[in-house]
Amino acid sequence: MLLSACASIEPRPAAEPAPHRPDEVPFYLRASLEDPFDAVDRALRRVGQDLHAVRPLDLPDPVEQDLLARVVDRIEFAYCPEGSQALQWARWFGDRPDYMERVLDRAHPWLHDIVNELEARDMPGELALLPIVESAYDPFAYSHGRASGTWQFLSATARDFGIEINDWYDGRRDVYVATRAALDYLGYLNQRFDGDWNLALAAYNAGQGRVQRAINFNRARNRATGWDALRLPRETRAYIPKMNGLGCLFREPERFGWTLPVWRDEPLVKRLTLPGPTDVVAVSALAELDIAELIALNPGLNRHLTPPGGPHHLFVPLDKADAVSSVLPLVNGREVIRHEEVVVRRGDTLSGLARRHDTSISALREANDLNGDHLNVGQRLQLPRASAAVPDDVPWADRYQDFARLQERLLPTRRFQHQVRPGESLWVIARRYSVSVRDLQQWNQLGQRDLIRPGQRLTILMDSPAGAPAPVESSSYTVRNGDSLWLISRRLNVRLADLMRWNGLDENAILRPGQVLVIRRGDQAS
Questions:
Q1: Domains in the chain and their CATH numbers?
Q2: Which residues, other chains included, contact 60 with Cβ-Cβ below 8 Å and sequence gap of 6+?
Q3: If 0-12 CB within 10 Å is exposed, 13-18 middle and 19+ buried, where does residue 63 land?
Q4: pLDDT grade, residue 494 (50/70/90)?
Q5: d(Cα 314, Cα 317) in Å, to the nearest integer?
Q6: Closest Cα partner for 71 from 154, 12, 131?
Q7: 152 neighbors 134 (Cβ within 8 angstroms)
Q8: From CA 483, how far away is CA 19, in angstroms rounded?
Q9: Which of 15, 29, 281, 459 has its CA 20 to 30 A from that of 478?
Q10: Residue 508 confidence (pLDDT)
Q11: Where does 348-501 show beta strands of DSSP type E?
Q12: For residues 49 and 101, what is the distance between their CA atoms, to the nearest angstrom?
């Protein structure tokens, strides 16, 4: 158990057959259609390689000019005594240079900004390594506990720290936004637990309430209150040694037979301010920017349009920044945004309306010229909606389909991870998620005679598989015993976000047997 993979890191699904013949696939997507995750990894690696090809890496004094040296210089609490789990983890990571190379390639475009933030906040360098444990620096990671993004935020915690999550955008996957929220949260936890970073990390993993209750339990019995003396979940008790082990590995790489990369201490990406909602596919075509690269650097986007209410930014490779800036005036995303009218009811608030209609407070304010939060009963508000149609009269029309296909197979809300428990069979798991055993076998490359074992992680796809029955045409659905919003959305082949929006529900809503839900189809579904 000690050396098992991190519980929050999700195995990537098996590659699906390419939907085009090879000669029909655009050059920039031929590889990515086979495995979208590999495409993203290659794109992130290119960001660093292309820039260093222009500016060769030649550091006469790595201590002063090496980016990772700045991380190492800030390591302060990592401790790996002989015989400890932390030391075993340091050796485990050090023995896997290929894995560490892949993870650090994903981290490379973001580390300059992360280290700047750590220094500005006077926080330890180990925190730059936390996403290695949380997600392997994969912004598309989605855990069995529904945490998402590089920093693995749950939606409730994310919103508490100012992250927008709506139909257009999920800020948990936006590495720039999530980094600031994660460091805000970690700083708060560090203060709450009297400057003990191990306790702060335990709370980040297991929840601050659980850690505080464990501390109170020990105090009441005159016991020690260090993290290793507390009654914490098994995952958390492995989580802290992983973090300490990584800190020791980076601080003393030669001790563990590992070579720490040497990177120029400079940004690889640039954050461009957008004038408003922007068609990123058009930007990629006009600026000759690779689609996989654009998605890899802007993983928070759910659509080819940036969100109407912001954040109004786009990340691009540094060497492409001028080209992208020059085409932004030519691209106007507002032209494809339509508006739907809603009447304010008693008790409505901007935040409630934003949640109910899967948009953001800032988008509502912008669309209705609102300066504050005050609403009047009967007031009519405009809700920004994206047209389902995409331009078909532009030279890059085919890119929209390719963009949507690649993004759909990457977005974490479309896949789920189940950890096999003792006594479970494929039949039991399939019944739990309302899928077939054949689907489970196909998604996880299992043969008819393959056995599953406790602790094994299985991928569950949230979208209906190819060849599934067509959605039931109906205007309502009556909740049954054992139903959840997720199961209903899958059964009826509708998006979970739409189901919640149509019925004014959020993801924590409790359903009652006999409750009637509204189901919209066709033009009404938007």
A1: 58-256 (1.10.530.10), 337-386 (3.10.350.10), 420-461 (3.10.350.10), 476-525 (3.10.350.10)
A2: none
A3: exposed
A4: confident
A5: 10
A6: 131
A7: yes
A8: 34
A9: 459
A10: 63
A11: 380-386, 415-419, 457-461, 476-478
A12: 13
Tell how far CA 286 is from the center of its chain.
28
What is the SS3 assignment for 248?
helix
pLDDT of residue 35: 59
Compute the 3-state secondary structure of the chain and give helix, strand, coil in percent, each to the nearest 5. 50, 10, 45
User: What's the pLDDT at 123?
Assistant: 98
CB atoms within 10 A of CB 160: 14
CA-wise closest residue to 132 among 177, 164, 171, 100: 100
Query: What is the spatial distance between Cα 443 and Cα 57, in angstroms, rounded to a whole number?
Result: 42
Give me the count of residues in the chain.
Answer: 526
Range in 39-53, 127-141, 270-284, 309-323 the model is least confident about: 39-53
Q: How far from the centroid of its chain's Cα atoms is residue 340's Cα?
A: 29
* pLDDT tier for residue 257 given thresholds of 50, 70 and 90: very high
Could you give the CA distance from residue 171 to residue 163 in angstroms, rounded to a whole number? 5
The confidence score (pLDDT) of residue 460 equals 74
pTM for this entry:
0.69
Please list the active-site residues: 134
The C-alpha atoms of residue 360 and residue 174 are separated, in whole angstroms, by: 16
Higher pLDDT, 385 or 156: 156
Output the CA torsion sign for 343, 349, 354, 360: positive
